[in-house]
Each structure stands twice: as C-alpha cells, then as structure tokens.
Amino acid sequence: MKKLKWSWQKITALIAGFFGIGTLVSCYGMPRGDSVEIKGTVTGLIDGELKPIPDISVYTQFDKAVTDEKGEYVICGYLKRDSLLFEDEDLDNNGCFKPMYIPLENDQVDVILEETTLEELLKNNEDNEDSEDQSE
Questions:
Q1: Mind listing the pLDDT tens digit for each residue in 83-118?
Q2: Are 79 and 36 in contact (CB under 8 A)?
Q3: What DSSP string runs through 10-44?
Q4: DSSP state string for 68-119
C-alpha cells in the first residue's frame, strides 16, 4: 500500500509540474503580461576611477534587488510604467553615493552613481523631510 501511495504522489507532482503548478516562474510569480527582466551594472567614480559598486539597492514598484561584487543586478519591472531607484543603503561601507531615479525605458540599464559624503547625504535627507513637513 505504501508503494502505491508513493506512485500517486509522484504522478500528482508530474501533472502539477506539467501545468506549471508549484514551479518557479520568472519574476517571482505569474507575470502580469508585460513585465520584463531588467539587467544592468552600477558603477561610480571612486578615487578618480570608474569602479563597480556592490551592495546598492535597486527598486521597482514591486521588486527589489541588490548589486553583487561586480555591481551587477537583475530585477523585474514594467517598461514605460516603472522607474528604477538606485540607493546606497550601507552608506559609508564602500563609498557614499547619491540616490538616483531613472524611468524604465530599456531592459538593460547601466548607471554611474555620483559619490557624496555621508554628511551631505544626511543633510539632503533632513532638508527633504523639512520641505515635506511644510507642504502638509
């Protein structure tokens, strides 16, 4: 009896796999028609040289990725409707870089981030919060 139960589980898994049930789908779930995989590299001028930047967070409306040691990332988004946000969340670990928004026009997006100081980044953040408080 145990052998028969195992074969039914195997058959069920085979049928579910055939129909795509329980399998991984690109872009984390069922794509909504026009979602695409976006790839790119994030670089920045560090000590006068253009170098890849690891640990930069990359956001679309529904997804997040982090650059690897080569500054490369892969994320899902919607062309012509999404924007990419590149943000240095580790702050001063590998340099400090200004955030950047880019409208999503292509499936290959390479960027060069502008280096800044931690003090300037924090000051700009405080200024933005002050202007939001005044507009309310």
A1: 999 998 876 677 789 999 999 998 999 999 998 887
A2: yes
A3: HHHHHHHHHTTTTS--TTTS---SSEEEEEEEEEE
A4: -TTSEEEEEEETTT-EEEEE-TTTTBTBEE--EEEE--SSB--EEEPEE-HH
d(CA 86, CA 34): 22
- Cα distance between residue 75 and residue 64, in whole Å: 7
User: Reduced to 3 states, what is the DSSP secondary structure of residue 127?
Assistant: helix
Which residue is listed with tokens 């670089």? 43
Round to the nearest angstrom and report the end-to-end CA distance of the chain.
Answer: 70
**Token pair of 7 as six digits:** 């074969």
- Cα separation of 97 and 118, whole Å? 8
Neighbour-count burial of 102, counting CB atoms closer than 10 A to its CB (0-12 exposed, 13-18 middle, 19+ buried): middle
At 69-85, the pLDDT tens digits run 999 999 998 888 889 99
